[in-house]
Amino acid sequence: MAPTEESADSTLAQLPHFVIVPLVAQGHTIPMVDLARLLAGRGARVSLVTTPINACRLRGVADQAARAKLPLEFVELPFPTEIHGLPPGIENVDQITDFSHFAPFFFDALPKLAGPLEAYLRAMAPRPSCIVSDWCNPWTAGVATRLGIPRLFFHGPSCFYSLCDLNAIDHGLHEQISVAAGDDQEKFAVPGMPVHVEVTRATAPGFFMTPGFEPLWKQCVDAMRTADGAVVNTFLDLEHEFVACYEAALGKPVWALGPLCLANKDADAMESRGDTSGVRRSAVTAWLDTMDTGSVVYVNFGSVARKLPRQLFEVGHGLEDSGKPFLWVVKEAEAAAPEVGEWLAALEARTAGRGLVVRGWAPQLAVLSHRAVGGFITHCGWNSLLESVTHGVPVVTWPHFADQFLNERLVVDVLGVGVPIGVTAPVMLFDDETLPVVRGDVARAVSELMGGGNEAGERRRKAKEYGEKAHRAMEKGGSSYENMTQLIESFRQSGGGKHGCNGGTVAEACDVHCHDVMPC
Ligand SMILES: *[C@@H]1O[C@H](CO)[C@@H](O)[C@H](O)[C@H]1NC(C)=O
């Protein structure tokens, strides 16, 4: 080995080393890849653990990181094979098309990655400083314990949601709901919140609380309790009191490092994010370039929800009836039905010049950061909401499931940047027979969002203000930037005792923090 390589290796060995283990689902992987790049860009060593099909989608990011000489490596563990009931070739939640495949995917396949991960980490000298794994990957807890490596969990929703969820568990909200006699519209206050929050049985917080998934839910909660701290994708000027209360309720440090999407600084990064096989940015931005500033409403329901033709037609008619310019992303799986394909082509012909339908994956950041986009109809996944707010774009909220109903409450009631489309209950994945939203709802919400008037102006003003604060948080001296400094420093090996913090001092960091959080 050449001397320079040797010294590069020994320098690498001295860096604080983070092993990042995302859940293999687009909405979970994307922010954790951003996190990995930010940490590496700030001088930490990072290994991001994934599987072959997912690594393929990340090739663009990996190439970029290599060109920039970032200390970031992608670790491919083979996806467990021959899982009973799971068709081969499925390595990501967005490939699942049958609800019954979720169970073997989560219960049988993912935990089998623990062995290969442990073997990989054991072979490393020195051992990594810290594992950061998704809240939904509780199988990493045993690996971290057996190797004596501190573990943080990354939780992808708003901190508002995560706090509601934790308070619901700690204060018995689920028990209260299960014994309540009222109908489905009965409202329950989420206990322990610094603001008033109401949910119904259907919109109560909790991942994996669906029948059959309770054991997974319990494992996730246990792994949350035994973690050394949490990393969240938000910033203090957006969710200060919820971060403080979450830290107090968990009794562990919470690093607010977002908006992580701002790791993507140039057009190239924005385009290769998520999935390089998607529509080229240039085709979409070229169209946006022809539109007036702030005039276009962008419509995208995230990577998981799949709409039946009937529901798609209502969305399309609503956009047409609104009279506003729109950019609508329809999934390939949705557009594949011949009746849908024909119908979309007819819609495009009728709205030529003001409507564009994109089929497949779209470069969302390039869209939201374009000056022509003035509003976003979103499923309220936290990445989408945060990306929108970060670019000063107010939203129409149409939550589908999981954390999305509470993310909606945050953006509508607390932040004041959203117009609800009016849904009150989650949709079942893939086979929902109800039609929760009709064309009139879409047209009304779009007009409210994109129209003139005081309320619309106020929403735009607030969104713009949060957008500016989001950018400041990520700059040197900003709260997220400095939280990342703290995170990296608390895992730096104490070479000459200069930093005073070894890998194991998360508990100390916690002591320091939990003293000055506000009472909730
Ligand atoms: C994050 O930054 C805030 C404000 O600067 C600070 O109060 C908090 O302690 C930091 N959190 C961590 C976990 O370092």
UniProtKB/TrEMBL annotation:
SUPFAM superfamilies: UDP-Glycosyltransferase/glycogen phosphorylase. The keyword Phosphoprotein does not apply. Its EC number is 2.4.1.-. InterPro entries: Glyco_transf_N, UDP_glucos_trans, UDP_glycos_trans_CS. Residues 19-260 form the Glycosyltransferase N-terminal domain. Keywords: Glycosyltransferase, Transferase. Gene3D superfamilies: Glycogen Phosphorylase B. GO terms for molecular function: UDP-glucosyltransferase activity. The keyword Glycosyltransferase applies. It holds the Pfam family UDPGT. It is an enzyme of class 2 (transferase). Belongs to the UDP-glycosyltransferase family. PANTHER family: GLYCOSYLTRANSFERASE, OS02G0207100 PROTEIN. This is Glycosyltransferase.
